[in-house]
## 1
Amino acid sequence: MDKLSIVGILVDKRTKAVPQVQEILTKYGNSIISRFGTHDSGEREHGLITLNFRDKEEKLKAMIHDLENVDAVVVKAIDMK
């Protein structure tokens, strides 16, 4: 059964990590319902991406694992359903 989750991705070294993060999000794009990204105007190198993600738990865990392997990226997920 597919899960519905909210995923928060904090990118600490935005200019360095964003290409890798974008590649991973593209890989899992069919499971991403919506995406919102912003940067902290007080901190030029911090960025925050919020996803609504719907798919099997294994796929969510795989995406989180891939993202956490990128230097300076922190990921948190909340199961909604």
## 2
Amino acid sequence: MAAETLMNYDRAKELKDFDDTKAGVKGLIDSGIVNTPKMFIRPAEELAEEQINPCQKNTEVPTIDLSNIQESSRQTADWRDSLNLSVQDSDPDPSEMPAVCRKPAIEYSQYIKNLGETLFELLSEPLGLEPYHLGSMGCTKGFSTVCHYYPACPQPELTLGVKKHADPGLLTLLLQNEISGLQILHEGQWFDVQPIRGGLVVNIGDLLQMISNDKFKSVKHRVLATPIGPRISVGCFFSGHASLLDQPFGPIKELTSEANPPRYKEAVLKEYIAKFVFGALDKKPPIDHYKI
């Protein structure tokens, strides 16, 4: 019976029917479903591995207080709905943003822009570079903001809010509400990242790992589906300015030497990003294509 059901399952049709409703995951919950649709359910072997290697719940992720920094110097679908806003170097055009979130989005974008400039200055210093170095490369020029809405899931053990991945860009600044769900992978185990009121999660991306020649390491992470909700998060992704899309990049020359040669070959930014956008998150990450 199970084999017959699998043979008759048309995933493409289920995805199309879901997209055609325009209601998103929230619409499924509002309709009163009690079982998670098949398109969201993780493969059986992945669920079995989860039973063998359970998540670790009692480890704290380091928290860094930056309040005084200016004085101190696809295999399955994800259980979420999303809104993507792109902010380039110039101020965003208000008319291009949804009216319902226009004012807070513009204000928050300015805060993130200022914080991003400060963080890239701080990250330049442990690399032995001048504070302005990463900024001068275009790291601070433009970012995208992705808002995720995770409704309560009727069968959270069968699906995920976001599958395992490392962010492909330079730096991610994540704001989340009080509902937990974010996990990071460390030494083969998953650890919870508990929300901190007024705090942001800062993730190193693959691109920063590449240009730092492995001085910085990106982190693999995922988001669980939960029986309570909604969980809401706002991620701001610094991935390089749009004007740099056709330019090659690689490890910063000042960070390489005969004793410490480049560990990555040069790549064109738009081709690198395309490997992430058009590839499944659980498959080979884009950074692996450029390792020497």
